[in-house]
Design a protein that fits this description.
Elements: H1 6-16, H2 24-28, H3 32-41, H4 45-54, H5 63-96, E1 101-104, H6 105-111, E2 125-130, H7 135-144, E3 148-149, E4 166-167, E5 174-178
Parallel strand pairs: 2-5
Antiparallel strand pairs: 1-2, 3-4
Helix pairs in contact: 4-5
Amino acid sequence: FCAMFANEKNFVIRTLFYGIKPTKKDFEEINYEKLVIYCSRQLILPAIYVNLRQKGCLRYLNAQFRRYLKEIYQINYNRNTKLISEIHCISELFQKNNLKHVFLKGSALLIGEFYSDIGERMINDIDILVEEKNIKKVERLMNEFSYHPLKNYTFFQENNKHLHRMTKQGKIFAVEIHK
């Protein structure tokens, strides 16, 4: 996988992690189909768009690819706006019930404003850490708030670090409660 996408991977690493501003020549050497495949697998298409925009390099992209990246970015930006709203609702619910909690992973980074642009990070779910002694209370509360597990298996749950992923009709993001 890596050898097939070596040029694209190097482009991404230089752009995202070393802060190097790509040159027009760099863009001429990129296979855009491979770049889309590589970035899609890594969930970094919006990050590429944001970084290239910040570096003033979008003009080097062919118009079709530039529109594609912008569309993916905009979809992700809109999703993350809804994510922030969902996080605040859950946090408010936990606070009203005196439940200590900490958001983890992408959700924590997003609400902690670690990104200059909320559309940069792709996030699949909301991960929340709660005290182990409150796990059953949290589970009941989430059920009362219309969040229900995707799977109904309980025989593996005691060994898991989190409850089964929960979803709520009308909400975009699944929730994972970690203990």
